[in-house]
Design goal:
By secondary structure, this protein is an alpha+beta fold. The protein is 30% helix and 33% strand. The chain contains three helices and six strands. Strands 1-2-3-4-6-5 form a six-stranded antiparallel sheet, covered by helices on one side. β5 and β6 form a beta hairpin. α1 runs antiparallel to α2 and α2 packs antiparallel against α3. About 4% of the residues have low confidence.
Length: 142
């Protein structure tokens, strides 16, 4: 596991401080709860209001669960709070095409992306050289 949390100065003066944190874990479902707890604790320390914090934790949970399910080696969570916007980025080392798992009923999966799109102001996903990256942005009250 690799963790960093570093406040970064923002310009011009008077703007809120930019915070950035990174968490890298094996892409395993057993580590999804660690991403939730990391996010909740960090956002509380960054003074993100409870309602936005809860939404962010749910977004992270859904994205980390997908990364754990489809990633091969590792998943990385990057959180950046800058000027009232929380940027949530989850990367994994998974394949581009997700296929439904035959051992899960169709009504028991597939809602995660919809939840993320509902809660976030914007989302995007794309294939990278080493896997996939999913980004979600969430406005946070000062």
């Amino acid at each position: 596991m690799f963790v960093t949390d570093s406040p970064r100065p923002s310009a011009p003066l008077g703007r809120p401080c930019r915070h950035e944190a990174l968490l890298t874990l094996p892409a395993q479902e057993a580590h999804v709860s660690a991403t939730r707890h990391f996010t909740a604790d960090l956002l509380e320390a960054w003074n993100v209001p409870a309602s936005e914090r809860d939404s962010a934790v749910l977004i992270v949970d859904e994205l980390a669960a997908n990364a754990a399910q489809y990633g091969r080696e590792r998943m990385t969570l990057r959180l950046v709070l800058d000027d009232g916007t929380l940027h949530i980025v989850v990367t994994d080392s998974g394949m581009a095409v997700e296929r439904p798992r035959p051992d899960i009923a169709s009504d028991e999966h597939g809602r995660g992306t919809g939840i993320v799109q509902y809660l976030a102001q914007s989302t995007e996903a794309h294939q990278t050289h080493g896997g996939r990256e999913v980004r979600a942005c969430l406005r946070c009250s000062p």
